[in-house]
Design brief:
Its EC number is 3.2.1.8. With 337 residues, the protein is α/β, with parallel strands linked by helices. The protein is built from 13 helices and 10 strands. Helix 11 (270-286) runs parallel beside helix 13 (326-335). 40% of the residues are buried.
Length: 337
């Protein structure tokens, strides 16, 4: 009997020690979602950032290298080297790869033309999907098929694909993508679509519901979550939004997360930033259809935030010296509970 007691005591402390030593990505997996980061080409060759990625990420995505202007700067040249390197890195480190993005209204190549006929645009769209997805079939786990298709009022954005093809360009892209790689997860990605009741969030839900009901292949929705610590967000509205996707059988990716704070007097907003991050990780842990949580960058050193939202920054979990911030440690502590 005494030996049994000693055995169970030893087992308890072994489990406790393993739990305490668990890395960020495994703690996230235990909570039911993949943890990831957007990276640049240099990040997968820098020993300092490699270590962070290996510890924190089970899914990675390029911040810009998969977009038209970088991938296919002209009609006849495809820059595969960067993406091949990312796929190789991910395979070596047992990570999933997400593609961002097949179609977007920004960072297009010069030859992408609003003067195309509908037939020409569909042909180019299909060629783009076929070329990419056949090359990486079985290697890219999920795709942001269309990025940012709505205006703030919930109307459809008049991007080049909408203008040349029409409103059905989204379903045509989804159908073609599924045809080329039936196993890849297909997502629509957007910002300001996290809270139920926001015009853009409701428009996205109505679109996805319509697609789903008509049998169009759609697996998930990306909520970018580029948030501002000075703004109050409704946890209840976010949960309600995610729940209605769960009811449709649709996954949700927290796809580009950062929480910016003012550079001046930044200390005053660090607590608010921490609360927002903790809220999001809590939601991701508790809602079963949240499948990934990806921060948009590794550290503040190369974050897009200061350039896009002047006067703000410090939006990520690592500082400019690639050191984890207190908010990182608080999140990890919560994930290990």
């Amino acid at each position: 009997m005494k030996n049994q007691i000693h055995f169970f005591i030893a087992l308890f402390f072994t489990v406790l020690l393993c739990s305490c030593g668990k890395s960020f990505k495994y703690a996230a997996k235990d909570n039911g979602f993949y943890s990831g980061m957007a990276v640049t080409v240099g990040d997968i060759f820098n020993p300092e950032t490699i270590k962070i990625l290996q510890n924190d990420c089970s899914i990675i995505v390029y911040e810009n290298s998969m977009k038209w202007a970088n991938l296919r700067p002209n009609k006849n040249f495809w820059n595969w080297n960067d993406i091949d390197s990312l796929v190789e890195f991910a395979e070596k480190n047992n990570m999933r790869v997400k593609w961002h993005t097949l179609f977007w209204h920004q960072q297009n190549s010069p030859f992408v033309s609003s003067s195309w006929t509908r037939e020409q645009a569909i042909q180019m769209m299909n060629e783009h999907i076929e070329t990419i997805m056949s090359r990486y079939k079985g290697k890219i786990a999920e795709y942001d098929v269309v990025n940012e298709m709505f205006n703030e009022d919930g109307s459809m954005r008049q991007n080049i694909w909408y203008k040349t093809i029409g409103a059905d360009y989204i379903e045509l892209a989804l159908k073609k993508a599924h045809q080329v790689d039936p196993d890849a997860k297909l997502l629509l990605n957007e910002f300001n679509n996290e809270e139920k009741g926001h015009p853009k969030a409701d428009a996205m839900y109505n679109l996805v519901k319509n697609l789903k009901e008509r049998g169009i292949p759609i697996d998930g929705v990306g909520m970018q979550l580029h948030l501002d610590a000075r703004i109050s967000y409704s946890e209840d509205a976010i949960r309600q939004n995610i729940q209605r996707y769960e009811d449709l059988g649709i996954a949700v990716s927290f796809s580009e997360v950062d929480v910016r704070i003012p550079i001046e007097n930044s200390k005053a907003y660090e607590s608010a930033q921490e609360n927002i991050y903790l809220m999001l990780y809590k939601i991701a842990s508790e809602m079963p259809n949240v499948t990934s949580f990806i921060t948009w960058g590794i550290s503040d050193k190369h974050s897009w935030v200061p350039y896009t939202f002047p006067g703000t920054g410090n939006a990520l979990l690592y500082d400019e010296d690639f050191k984890p911030k207190p908010v990182y440690n608080e999140i990890l502590k919560e994930l290990k509970k």
